[in-house]
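Justification of computing resources. Each target in the renewal requires a structure prediction run like the one illustrated here; the chain below, 653 residues long, is used simply to show the kind of job we budget for.
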Amino acid sequence: MDKLKMHSPDLTQRNIDAIKGLFPTVVTETVDADGNPVRAVDFDALRQELTDHVVEGPQERYQLDWPGKRAAAFAANAPIAKTLRPVREDSVNFDTTKNLFIEGDNLDALKLLQESYLGKVKLIYIDPPYNTGNDEFVYPDDYSEGADEHLLRSGQVNNAGERLRSNPDSNGRFHSDWLDMIYPRLKLAKSLLTPDGYIVVSIDDAEFSALELLLDEVFGASNKLAVLVWDRNRKNDARFFSVGHEYMIVYARNKSILTERGTRLREPQSGIVEAREFIADATARNADDWEATQAEWRKWTSSFPKDDERRKLGRFSKVGPRGPYRDDGDISWPGGGGPRFDILHPATGNLCKVPPRGWVFSTKQRFDEMVANGHVVFGPDETTLPRLIRYLFESEGLVMGSVHYSYAQSAAVDFMKLMGAKVFDNPKNWKDLRRIIEYLTEPHDIVVDFFAGSASTGHAVLDLNVATESQRRFILVQVAEPVPEKSVAETHAYETISGIARDRLRRVGDAIGTASATDAGFRMFRVDTTNMADTSTTADALGQGKLTGMIDSVKPDRTDDDLLFQVLLDWGLDLAEPIKVEVIEARRILSVANGALIACFAGEVTDGVVKAIARRHPLRAVFLDAGFANDAARINVEQIFREVSPATEVRAI
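Resulting structure tokens:
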């Protein structure tokens, strides 16, 4: 019976698999430092496959580089012996929710999520820490080099320790530290995205240029969709310019797939629901008097302030049986070179004037269809070009612009009202995030934020689900960063930022209440060391007195739930699947997703328990290795499954 590996995937081996798929002959075998056989890539053979397209040695190439980049890339691929332990007491609706909240280093969390959510996430939004130049960093990854080592390797000091550059940044690693942190996380994040997925990254001026180049490298420059500018608060105390904006950089996982599928991103026009209600009321009052309804409509749309998005509804200035419309649309082919065919004027019977750029419609048949559907209006005679008609309520929506206005004070006020105090500085405006999420996702998609902060992304998903009766899910990751000493958060008994985030989600869920069908809960997990005991120590080094304790491969403080979720991670199953608990012959049995997996971690497994599990024909079954008295018992379990449920994949831990 094979054992589960019980650690995060080795992404280097996954890359070797990908290379083998393209060039089978370049993958060979060698031995590692311990003499064990391992797969490897023969770079000489690979070089031969790519003879005309290899850049080597000092040859110049276009790339973003910094001291420590190789180590950062290695950090993304290296497996870790860690797990996600469920924390029921800090969860909400643990047994039924599909949302996840993970407390811990997001680099570890992203590695642990690789198998379960590979290619399943539609949108990743992150707001990483902006590089303020402070020496202390919230994400001090193990591979980060010391300041002295970095100064020497990056050429800022010589071997004698003498500075070679004037006024370097405080630790000499101003940009490198930040790039070391974000690079492996972006590499891991990419593999979680669906083929038609998106990543959106918030950033300010300090690292905008470096981040854009880094995203080009990780996701490909051809997959860049937009740089959104968010105009926020301005201060009058700046020496040169008052910088009052931030950016959101948007990349597709694969833009060509979006193009092939004909994807067109659109969002509902602001105020469209109110507009429908107004027109319905006005029509009821005025019957078929469209001039009266039109006059009321124009008065209503002009009543909004100039900076109110609803004022733009007034562009649809005319009203008819199909609601507000505008008849000033250009009917010519954009850019020129469009089709040219004869169109007769319906009143004069003469040939209409053809636009210099050609008709916007590809065929005369399509033109006639649009006329019949009331989407084309003709001029008084053939000398005037026809125009397109657009109906407000039949519009497919608006493409999102790249410049937006959002004020931090309003987000802070909303947050303070929800939490009862200012327990977090500068929360992201969840309404802005809701707009982005609605624009880029569908009703059943998964949204990930691995720099969750105060959980603005989770708030946005929950609110959007209520408003649109959808079932989007979130996965949030936040490190257990302590709140500042003597802060408002500390006085309100919060110990960590992640604690603030969870409390916010609870409060949002309470506000939603039970009247809505929206899933307002979350399963909480904490990144921790693996559940498996270290059995690699030799008996001589351990000492006879402690040898007995090494028989059990599971750490003594770990529960069945702990083991189950590490198995789910190892087998690549969704951590939000429903779990059913029952007892068979005094043994606790855990069934996941109606038989996708059945687990028994009892200290002794009987034939009766094994047969009862096998008769349910699960896709997978897992047992505790220590639950088998001997090899014969283990072989007996395999034999039972071969006879009763041969399709079941049976493993031990």
